[in-house]
Design goal:
Elements (H helix, E strand, L loop, with lengths): L1 E5 L2 H18 L4 E4 L6 H12 L9 E4 L1 E3 L10 H8 L11 E2 L8 H14 L5 E4 L21 E4 L2 H7 L12 E4 L2 H5 L3 E6 L5 H9 L17 E6 L15
Parallel strand pairs: 1-10, 2-3, 2-6, 3-5, 6-9, 9-10
Antiparallel strand pairs: 4-8, 7-8
Helix pairs in contact: 1-2
The protein binds 2-amino-2-deoxy-6-O-phosphono-alpha-D-glucopyranose.
Length: about 250
């Protein structure tokens, strides 16, 4: 895994956006896998800035989001649909038909998940997958468990994740307990993966990511099986990684 430590959140965003813009410039019809959470917000802001400066064109880009809360309609203020339109899509020239986000209200979960996988394949696979990381090592909503699911599926959120997500909901009882998420194999099928981590909260899990083996207790550790992963951290998230090396295995 390629490890890049930068000063702060702004530098994380600039580094990530350099990689995203390069991917789009090399392949204007590229397929991006997108993440939510607080970490990528600065990255989306920087992407909008580059778009407004005329440095990037999204007219041929296709996107697939990692996950969506189960039980929330697209129009819900805390849905990932709302998040993506608010933080990115409504500000850029992406075509609506090229945006793919899982439907949190589907009644036919298995069919919907299978169709999502098929759509990704039909678009030629994900060229660049952006990821955040949960404090417990989850990616998308693949939570630590005895077994991980390879494909897109309905996932029960861990207590820790529900607790972490509750900061976005006024009423604690409204915090979703389930989500639909790409599976670990779906994520690993991306040609390139860029994982962002910011803040002290993430220091421990980033340390574990590099210092423990591959384990379902840390779903992100499966990224070590992939040949092209870049982990971008700020000083705080990287404070426990005891190496200056750029290439960590
Ligand atoms: C949610 C998302 C993940 C994200 C994680 C971390 O659980 N499903 O994709 O990586 O939050 O979020 P944050 O960046 O807010 O710490």
């Amino acid at each position: 895994m390629q490890y890049i430590k930068v000063d702060n959140g702004t530098s994380i965003a600039q580094t990530a956006v350099d990689m995203i813009v390069q991917a789009i410039q090399q392949k204007p019809h590229c397929v991006l896998g997108l993440a939510t959470g607080s970490t990528p917000i600065a990255t989306y802001k920087e992407l909008i800035k580059r778009y407004e400066q005329g440095n990037v064109d999204f007219s041929q880009v296709t996107t697939f989001n990692l996950d969506e809360y189960y039980g929330l309609a697209a129009s819900h203020p805390q849905s990932y649909h709302t998040y993506m339109y608010h933080h990115l899509f409504k500000h850029i020239n992406i075509k609506k038909q090229n945006i793919h986000i899982l439907d949190g209200t589907t009644k036919q979960i298995e069919k919907h998940c299978e169709q999502y996988e098929n759509k990704i394949k039909a678009c030629g696979g994900i060229d660049l997958q952006l990821l955040g990381i949960g404090r417990n090592g989850h990616i998308g909503f693949n939570e630590p468990a005895e077994q991980l699911q390879p494909r897109t599926h309905l996932a029960r959120l861990s207590k820790e994740t529900v607790q972490a997500n509750s900061r976005f909901f006024t009423n604690k009882k409204d915090v979703p307990q389930y989500a639909i998420t790409m599976g670990v194999r779906t994520i690993l099928a991306a040609k390139k993966i860029v994982l962002l981590a910011e803040g002290h909260d993430k220091a421990e899990i980033i340390e574990k990511l590099f210092q423990t083996g591959i384990t379902t207790d840390i779903p992100a550790s499966f990224l070590r099986l992939h040949h092209d992963v870049t982990v971008i951290v700020d000083e705080r998230a990287g404070s426990k990684v005891n190496t200056a090396a750029k290439e960590l295995r």
